[in-house]
Design brief:
The chain has 336 residues and is mostly helical. The protein has helices at residues 2-44, 60-70, 81-97, 116-137, 141-172, 177-182, 187-207, 219-222, 232-257, 275-296, 302-330. The protein is globular, with a radius of gyration of 21 Å. The N and C termini lie far apart (47 Å).
């Protein structure tokens, strides 16, 4: 019995504890990202934001969670009940399982697989199913149009994101996220990848349906879009999934372009700071870009969104894959 516990029980218990810690941290940061967003938007609009619940409004996310938990869930009589309830669960689950391969520091990763970037891309691509299911199962024209918008929007910008990732993989020669962070990248290579960073930052806004690309839930024309019929915890799961995806995409940007847990510009004098601190600060910087964009830019028209994805980002990303490949071959720096 002791041998069975040593062989199977103890490793399983450790893995479950790691999963619990990851889920707890992600949910904590999701809750307080909503607080940070309201505070940042308030500062940019010359107002205070949450100030009433707790000191400086720090208990506001907890109050919001209790309010949503205590509300009655209303399911429309004409809705497909099973799919209607599965949609928010799927969206939330996909936002969480992607964290299994995210390394926040050397060795601090649940599953250090060799195809981590493919796993991330596959999980993020499946997020569209939850939105389509919600739009169809609600049996509402507004919800259905929001689901269709989201499907075409996410598919359009995933193509550009894939080509951006190809450029990074050409430079580092690995699909393992830890090796991508630790790969040697000279200054000229970082400059060469800078246009792809810009494309990736705009694409993750569209991928997560965030302003100025929040057309699937456009209040002015769709009354809330694919979430219009949801309430209580079903709505909360969509809400949590959206913010968890924001943190996930920011972490991906940090790993692919910003050096992950390494200090800025590889300055040795800053190496004493733990790696997870640098990872958190860089991820928070990308999240601030999300919030800054929401406070600054108006919503795009749908034809402008599609034109940007198919007529600008896609041709430019294809061209840049050729440029990066040519430069690496010409300088004989292709990774072995």
């Amino acid at each position: 019995m002791m041998e069975l516990w040593t062989t199977y029980g103890w490793p399983l218990a450790v893995m479950l504890a790691q999963i619990g810690v990851i889920l707890g941290l992600v949910l904590f940061f999701v809750a307080y990202l909503t607080y940070a967003e309201r505070k940042v938007l308030g500062a940019m609009q010359r107002r205070q934001g949450p100030m009433t619940v707790g000191p400086l409004g720090l208990l506001q996310p907890i109050a919001d969670g209790v309010k949503l938990l205590s509300k009655e869930m209303i399911i429309p009589s004409q809705a497909h009940r099973v799919v209607f309830l599965l949609a928010p669960m799927l969206t939330f689950m996909l936002a969480l399982i992607a964290w299994a391969v995210i390394p926040v520091s050397p060795g601090w990763v649940l599953a250090d697989i060799n195809v981590g970037i493919l796993y991330l891309f596959a999980v993020s691509s499946m997020g569209v199913y939850g939105v389509i299911m919600a739009g169809w199962a609600s049996n509402s024209r507004y919800a259905f149009l929001g689901g269709l918008r989201s499907a075409s929007q996410m598919v359009s910008y995933e193509v550009s994101m894939g080509l951006v990732i190809v450029c990074v993989l050409l430079c580092v020669g690995s699909l393992n996220l830890t090796e991508i962070v630790e790969a040697q990248r000279p200054a000229w290579m970082q400059i060469m990848l800078l246009p792809m960073l810009v494309v990736f930052l705009v694409s993750i806004l569209a991928e997560t349906n965030r302003s100025p690309f929040d057309l699937p839930e456009g209040e002015s024309e769709l009354s809330g879009g694919f979430m219009v019929e949801y309430s209580a915890m079903a709505f909360a799961l969509f809400f949590l999934g959206e913010y968890a995806n924001m943190i996930l995409m920011s972490a991906m940007t940090t790993l692919l372009f910003l050096g992950g847990w390494l200090p800025p510009f590889n300055i040795e004098a800053l190496a004493f700071v733990p790696g997870f601190i640098w990872f958190g600060l860089k991820t928070a910087g990308v999240l601030f870009f999300y919030l800054w964009t929401r406070a600054t830019f108006p919503r795009y028209r749908y034809d402008q969104l599609m034109r940007l994805g198919w007529k600008v980002f896609l041709p430019f990303s294809l061209l840049w894959v050729l440029v990066v490949s040519g430069v690496l071959v010409f300088t004989d720096t292709l990774p072995q």
